[in-house]
From TrEMBL:
Pfam families linked: DctQ
Entry keywords, A to Z: Cell inner membrane, Cell membrane, Membrane, Transmembrane, Transmembrane helix, Transport
Topology in membrane: Multi-pass membrane protein
Every Tripartite ATP-independent periplasmic transporters DctQ component domain range: 23-153
UniProt similarity note: Belongs to the TRAP transporter small permease family.
Localization terms from the record: Cell inner membrane
Superkingdom as given in the UniProt entry: Bacteria
Transmembrane segments: 7-33, 45-63, 84-107, 127-145
Function, as annotated: Part of the tripartite ATP-independent periplasmic (TRAP) transport system.
Protein name, entry field: TRAP transporter small permease protein
Record text on subunit structure and interactions: The complex comprises the extracytoplasmic solute receptor protein and the two transmembrane proteins.
Length: 168
């Protein structure tokens, strides 16, 4: 199970990186188009890629301790109190992100059913970029539940072990 979850987080991170690279490609197309006298409007496409990259990168970032954390209270605690607070925060976060995922999934389904199109030059079905948001939130919910399990079972979350911004 651990290997499957780590593969899921890695795949999500790779997809986020691909969408980030697609933003650069779309900007290059705009630059080349302008130099050739062509109008290439990739602004909307870049926005879609940005939302997919942002949400798909959430779980990968959490897993590697790259999320911004304000540990003022948590760092002041030790032992079982710290573990209890970290567990509470993970549980509440998983609940909130899970609820957001549910709402995003319903919104994506409605966009698909109603045939919603983007308002830009290229009328793209809106459910396609919304799918990246929903998938990213679903994977983040799994990652938070995974961290909660680690906290309960082993007493330490993976995001703490991999905290890259530690001042210690």
């Amino acid at each position: 199970m651990r290997k499957s979850l780590d593969s899921l987080y890695l795949a999500s991170g790779v997809l986020a990186a691909i969408f980030l690279a697609l933003i650069a490609v779309s900007i290059l197309f705009q630059i080349v188009g302008r130099s050739l006298g062509l109008v290439v409007d990739a602004t909307e496409f870049s926005g879609f890629c940005l939302s997919a990259s942002t949400f798909l990168g959430l779980a990968y970032s959490l897993r590697h301790g790259a999320h911004v954390r304000v540990g003022l209270l948590v760092d002041a605690l030790s032992g079982s109190w710290r573990r209890l607070l970290e567990s509470f925060v993970c549980a509440v976060s998983a609940g909130v992100v899970g609820w957001l995922c549910w709402c995003a999934a319903l919104y994506t389904q409605q966009s698909y059913e109603y045939g919603d199109l983007s308002p830009g030059l290229i009328a793209a079905p809106l459910w396609i970029p919304q799918l990246g948001i929903t998938l990213g939130l679903a994977i983040m919910t799994v990652a938070l539940l995974d961290e909660l399990y680690r906290l309960i079972r082993y007493g330490r979350a993976n995001y703490i072990d991999n905290d890259s911004g530690s001042l210690e």
